[in-house]
Specification:
By secondary structure, this protein is mainly beta. The chain folds into two domains: about 80 residues, Elongation Factor Tu (Ef-tu), domain 3 (Beta Barrel), CATH 2.40.30; about 90 residues, Elongation Factor Tu (Ef-tu), domain 3. The protein has a seven-stranded antiparallel beta sheet. The protein is globular.
Length: about 210
């Protein structure tokens, strides 16, 4: 589990194919800030732009680690098959502060940036989310964008999906990779975990008895 509070900005510095066809995934080498891996162990979970991955090798001296990303994960995310900056977050520990919201690290869909412009001291980030995610988005609700916990300030359903406005303070722009976004950029989106369960409860048939798991 994660909180959507980014703990470092890393960089994908190498991408290697794990096989000769599209059914194979890739191995990524990531460069981290100095000291970032000091409390990370082999096999620990680290979210890359909001996607939960497993550290398969560690080099604390060089501040690098590798992950293997499957073809399925590549198909369901964006920005994890190319060189460039990525948001990093280590897995939540039981005694940590929950500064953002509960994030699973499972990407629900890919959004497209419609607008990213400075307004006063802040930045307006406008994203078109897929229609399948529209019902999970709410005014002042939570959304995870490339692993960052953010608040939805405005929503508008359109024929193409759901347009949402998000306000970014300078601290967020300066300390995450979101500052690299521009109109046309694709981003990983994860909906609020609670919304998933609300939908399931609303769909459940009250006439059908609940069965205990075997």
């Amino acid at each position: 589990m994660f909180t959507g509070i980014i703990t470092g900005v890393g960089r994908i510095v190498a991408v290697h194919d794990l096989g000769s066809s599209s059914s194979y995934g890739k191995r990524l080498t990531l460069q981290t800030p100095a000291g970032y891996l000091d409390d990370v162990g082999l096999g620990d979970s680290i979210a890359l732009n909001g996607a939960c991955m497993t550290a398969t090798t560690l080099d604390a001296v060089q501040n690098q680690f590798t992950i293997d990303i499957s073809a399925e994960s590549l198909a369901k995310t964006t920005g994890l098959d190319q060189l460039g900056p990525v948001n990093l977050e280590k897995a939540l520990r039981a005694h940590d502060r929950l500064g953002g919201h509960i994030v699973s690290g499972h990407v629900d869909g890919i959004g497209s940036v419609s607008q990213f412009t400075q307004v006063g001291e802040s930045w307006l980030l406008q994203i078109l989310a897929p229609r399948s995610l529209a019902k999970y988005l709410a005014y002042k609700g939570s959304i995870t964008v490339n692993g960052v916990s953010l608040t939805v300030n405005q929503i508008e359903d359109t024929a193409d999906g759901c347009e949402m406005d998000i306000n970014l303070i300078p601290h967020t722009v300066d300390n995450t990779a979101l500052g690299q976004l521009k109109a046309g950029s694709h981003v990983n989106l994860e909906i609020d975990l609670i919304a998933r369960y609300v939908e399931r409860m609303l769909q459940a048939d009250p006439q059908q008895p609940l069965k205990a798991p075997l």
